[in-house]
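The pair is set out directly below:
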Amino acid sequence: GKLGQLVAGELDVDRMDYLVRDAHHTGVPYGTIDYGRLLRALTFRDGDLVLAEGNVATAESLLVGRALMNATVYRHHVSRIAGAMLDRAGERLLASAAIDPESFARTTDAELLGALREHDPTADTARRITERDLYKRAVWAERGDVPGSVVDADYAETREFERDIAEEAGLPDRSVVVDNPGHPTMPESSVRVVVNGDIRPLDQQSPLVEGMLESQRVQWRFGVYAPDDHTAEVAAAAERVLGLAGVGDTSE
């Protein structure tokens, strides 16, 4: 029903909650949006959840908050490395049948780390995440330096890249993680607002939207990660396998 839009949509309360909560717990002020005003401005028009008249700036504040949190927290390279490592470990855990998908979906953070520690193929990742001994950036490339075929790669192709790079570098498969963020998107830009009595998508009403999308395009990075003592050979292997040119990361 229409109330489902309150918990799953461009303006859902979950998005507002985690933005404010994550800003608080990370000590980053950018996500501290005026969620009270946002909630008061929500209304339904013809069954669609919209922001009431006079709230274009309110919608823009959500967009700006999300964009800044993306740049400083969600898309920070350390967050991305930890997330990618955890993704691969979760895949190995499920593939081993050590836990069924339904139970996996219900695990808490502590339970998941415990399960990863107890399983040989994932124990090292659990240790690295717990001790913050994360992989480092072997490649950290801008959009223009990455072939379109690599950016458009699907799940299976990305995992094949990892295996090929590891083989080229003479390392085990699990020593390489390819982190391909895909094309920049901003779902919040389609938030609907009432302007002069008409319902309009925010991206057709606010010039800020294009600026935020351009910011995402500029900040976009393709990553290849590896243990700290193998980043040089992984960088060289990734350049050969993926057709990159001189994009190895030397900042860590």
Notes: Strands lie at 42-45, 48-51, 136-141, 177-179, 192-195, 198-201, 222-226. The mean pLDDT is 89. The CA atoms of residues 53 and 196 lie 7 Å apart.
